[in-house]
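Incident log, structure service

09:12 report received: a user says their structure output differs between two submissions of the same chain.
09:20 pulled the input from the user's history:
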Amino acid sequence: MNVLRPLLARTLLIGLLGLVLPGAKLAHAADSAEEARLKAAFVFNFIKFAEWPEGGAMRAGDSIELCVVGERPLDGQLDALAGRSVRGQTVRLRKWAPGTAGRCDIAFVAAGEGGRPARLQQGNGREPVLTVADRPGFLEEGGVIELKLSGGRVRFDINLAAARDGGLRLSSQLLQLADRIIQ
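09:34 re-ran on a clean worker, output below:
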């Protein structure tokens, strides 16, 4: 199994690289459907390159709870992630707001939402939440990953301090792909 782990990680990295290399360049910045599809693919890959603490998300036989904050973020493209498998666990998608009962492993905050990442974490109790958004300033508010357009391509920045504070570990391979990392 230990021999397969580096091969699996390399394969996953190549898949993620395929999203950020020239093939992921949008024909026009206004091509919002394609942008939304690519951002949803990024969210799925972020799950693959994040590690939750022992006993948290990604427990054997457990689902991965992808919580959506806001109305139809990414034009509903996140819906396509429901039912997909990551490391043998199924992604479940649900609408979420602070105060909502139930576990949330990854939260995608819609661009128009003002939900602060700290409130999302508090609403999830002591369980870590990988917070992702596609709005400027999200990292400075304590979010973990901020998606953006740069040169017609979907790119991302990471707040590594927020990830660590939340008990999450992000793969060094993912960190290498980020445009900017807040330590």
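09:41 both user submissions now match this output. Likely a transient worker issue. Closing.
09:42 reviewer note: Helices lie at 4-20, 32-48, 117-123, 160-165, 172-177. The radius of gyration is 15 Å.
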